[in-house]
Specification:
The protein is α/β, with parallel strands linked by helices and 292 residues long. The chain has one domain: Rossmann fold, CATH 3.40.50.970. It contains 11 helices and 8 strands. α2 links the parallel β1 and β2. The longest helix is centred in the N-terminal third of the chain and has 15 residues. The radius of gyration is 21 Å and the shape is globular.
Amino acid sequence: MSPVTEVKLTPRIYEAKKPGWCPGCGDYGIFAAIKMALSELQIRPHELVSVAGIGCSGKISDYIYCYSVHTLHGRVMPVMLGIKLANPKLTVIGFSGDGDAFAIGMSHFIHMARRNPDLTYIIMDNQIYGLTKGQYSPTSNPGMRTGSSPYGSKEEPIDGAAVALSAGATFVARGFSGDPKGLKEIFVKAIRHRGFSVVDVISPCVTFNRINTYDWYRQRITPVEGLENKSRAEILEHLMRVKAQGKIPVGIFYEENTRTYEEEVLLNPEEPMALQDLTPREEFWDLVEIYR
């Protein structure tokens, strides 16, 4: 019998079906980048789980060829964690929009960062609620006018990378969907990292956000390098300085290797709960008889 030949996985293999976002949507760049990253890492579809929330970003769970969960609004992170604890051998990647991550999902975001599970969390940030027809979001800039805010937003935006750094995420980066190849490099490093990886991706909405366009971002994006040996506080201060100049810092901001949540809480991470024999023992049936 001839030996089995390993099939090299190409980006096309990870495409379950053609996306249905608006033509020109930044999310196409994210989809292209994640397919390239998975191909470079040669992650088998049956060893991969995609978890997505509500919003335009949530559609990506239907487009990636792998196991997937399309969960409730703001609940991507607890679902990701449950899957990882049940079977740490799986690669679990979560996708959220800026509303899903930083509005209803914000409390999960902070606690997931401090726990440090081995998960990759990708935020598809377009500074607008696209699926519900264009309300301003937690990352919209002050003055953003929408159908529900004709006088403009009066709120300061959340900086997802700054929150991730402050909360304790061990890998923090920002990329731009208009640069799929550069974004692919960030995704590869984020997925390889053992710990909670947060990638805030700037992803223009061409239908409801006519302010923060591709050109608008390209005029402001500033690659940030040389942060490897700096503390969280120093990096945070540097990022805030760049922002104060009207620029948007992109790149890998922080990476730290430390114990993961699975290593802390699982008795035997090498024996996944999902693969254990869960047949009740005799003692269980004795208890059932006692209390019947």
